Amino acid sequence: MNRLILIFGFFILLISCKSTKISYESEFKISDDSVNLYAFIGKKISVLEFDPNENNTEVVTDTVFGKVFKSTPYIMDYAFKCKYRIEKNVFNELKTKTIDFVAYDHYGIAKFKNYKYVILYISLDKEDGSYYHQKYQFDPVEKTKNGTWQGLNGESIESLFNDKKNGVLSARGLFDK
Questions:
Q1: Can you tell which superkingdom this protein's organism belongs to (predicted)?
Q2: Is residue 145 part of a domain?
């Protein structure tokens, strides 16, 4: 009988240890609707290059002489139409399972496309309803054995986000310094 109680107690101990490990995952996620930024962990579905100068002509009115003419601005960046599956919202919530956005890169390749999972930083253009990637801003991440997310060097999602928030995103005026 004592042996049965000992085995049952050991079994209960094992179950409780497993339960603790499952609930360990960090649920880091914050929101601030006053900031036009969405950060999320995404899994690449597609990243397709397109010509940003196609159909780029606009009608402009000269403010001095009132003359109307056509102007064709030239975009010197490479452009990409991107589609990602949202694995986890990090900053503000995108209420969809997938997201389409446009990314521009002066160097010819959107480097985030080289990783299976990344934290991406995008903003909404309220005029046309499209999302645009915050140029060059991403963090490669991976899922650990216990189901949590971390940077490739073991950084937490919170520290990766805060580094961007307190650095380049503040410099761009998205956050107060």
A1: Bacteria
A2: no
